[in-house]
Design a protein that fits this description.
206 residues; Tetracycline Repressor, domain 2; 9 helices; mainly alpha
Length: 206
């Protein structure tokens, strides 16, 4: 597991130091076992500072999630670009492979635990609703870009992005909640869908 992520390498203030400690404790212990004490064990300053900024672990975790989402929004601005067909391969790698914060197994396991909390905690449900919209919006923009470039077929971008979003959540859950290895077969079938239903055959351009 990585000890940190790029935007935590050099925390700029106490809040970022706390959130870095939260990230490390979250990956190590998951949602069910994380406590203020375990976050404090990763925090280089006094435990009392945690309580000065936050009332409890859920308030701290929600701020951590908001920070992660804001960093993602800053690092992945909506824009069209070249090579949407190549970009879709990067999306597939993010979905199915391991490595990096989005696919780190410890982080993914903790996030799946946290998503389960959204079943009965409206605060987490609201957060995951916004992150799902964020992901779908970027995939939808990629699909529209590919159609404009002439490399994707005339599919419905919103419906296609919705399918990708469900696949993101499903593969992340499968990786950390089952010993049954079905992702290789799933990727093979999903790639077949992309070849047959999304990518535009060169002869279609005639």
């Amino acid at each position: 597991m990585n000890d940190s992520v790029s935007f935590f390498e050099e925390p700029e203030d106490t809040r970022e130091e706390i959130l870095k400690a939260t990230y490390e404790a979250f990956c190590e212990h998951g949602y069910s076992d994380i406590t203020i004490q375990k976050i404090s064990d990763k925090f280089p300053k006094s435990k009392s500072l945690l309580y000065h900024h936050y009332d409890g672990k859920d308030e701290l975790l929600l701020d951590f999630l908001e920070f992660m989402l804001s960093q993602a929004e800053e690092q992945f601005p909506l824009r069209t670009g070249e090579g949407a067909d190549e970009h879709i391969e990067l999306v597939l790698d993010t979905m199915f492979l391991s490595g990096g914060i989005l696919t780190d197994e410890d982080f993914s396991r903790a996030m799946v635990e946290l998503r389960a909390e959204a079943a009965h905690d409206e605060r987490y449900r609201e957060y995951f609703t916004r992150t799902d919209r964020f992901t779908s919006r970027h995939v939808e923009y990629l699909i529209r870009s590919g159609i404009e470039q002439g490399v994707f077929q005339e599919v419905d971008p919103e419906e296609t992005a919705a399918m990708f979003q469900v696949m993101f959540v499903g593969t992340a859950t499968q990786k950390v909640t089952s010993n049954e290895s079905v992702l290789e077969a799933c990727r093979s079938e999903f790639e077949r869908y992309i070849r047959n239903c999304l990518l535009r055959d060169d002869t279609d351009a005639d």
